[in-house]
Design brief:
Elements: H1 2-12, H2 21-32, E1 38-42, H3 48-54, E2 59-63, H4 74-80, E3 85-90, H5 103-120, E4 125-129, E5 152-157, H6 158-161, E6 170-173
Parallel strand pairs: 1-2, 1-3, 3-4, 4-5
Antiparallel strand pairs: 5-6
Pfam families: Aminotran_1_2
InterPro entries: Aminotransferase_I/II_large (IPR004839), NHTrfase_class1_PyrdxlP-BS (IPR004838), PyrdxlP-dep_Trfase (IPR015424), PyrdxlP-dep_Trfase_major (IPR015421)
Domain Aminotransferase class I/classII large: 32-177
Length: 179
């Protein structure tokens, strides 16, 4: 019944509009977190992510970067995922470093998340926070992370790419295949 109910509600409310992207971030986080759950972030990270988790009595788990490349330390990621892990927030290009996570890195992250979901029998969501996705240079491009992992939730804001500070206009994508 839960699956049938979810499908009916999602058809009725497939387009949801909020005043800002931030409230949707909170809605998105609230729907997947219970008290004492964990949200993983890659250091360095946008400081408000800590509040996203704290608002719902969850905790932030920090994965350190490789200090030469600023790509996430994937062994550290795999070691820190537990049965309480509900989400990984990814921000690429990264705020504050500007580092773009390589496609190979994202493929490996997707594989690690799939493996850990199966190991713990839980859903783990990759929350892709993408306000800087169009601010890439020198021939670089930013892939949509939905291509690497099915449980990816994408949030985008036009405020950065269109130089509209304070105008939190954007969108959220939840692929059909997401749990």
């Amino acid at each position: 019944y839960v699956t049938a109910c979810r499908e009916i509600v999602s058809r009725l409310y497939s387009d949801l509009i909020t005043v800002l992207k931030i409230p949707f971030q909170h809605i998105r986080i609230k729907t997947i977190l219970d008290p004492d759950d964990e949200v993983i972030v890659f250091a360095p990270f946008f400081g408000e992510y800590r509040q996203y988790a704290a608002n719902f009595d969850a905790k932030i788990v920090i994965v350190q970067p490789n200090l030469e490349t600023f790509q996430p330390d994937l062994a550290d990621l795999e070691a820190k995922i537990t049965a309480r892990t509900k989400a990984l927030i990814v921000n690429t290009p990264n705020n504050p470093t500007g580092v773009i996570y390589k496609p190979q890195t994202m493929e490996q992250i997707g594989a690690i998340l799939e493996k850990k979901q199966a190991e713990f029998g839980t859903d783990i969501y990759l929350i892709s926070d993408e306000p800087y996705r169009e601010l890439v240079y020198d021939g670089n491009k930013e892939d949509f992370l939905t291509k690497y992992y099915r449980n990816t939730l994408v949030g985008y804001s036009f405020s950065k790419s269109l130089s509209l500070p304070g105008e939190r206009i954007g969108y959220v994508v939840v692929p059909d295949e997401a749990a």
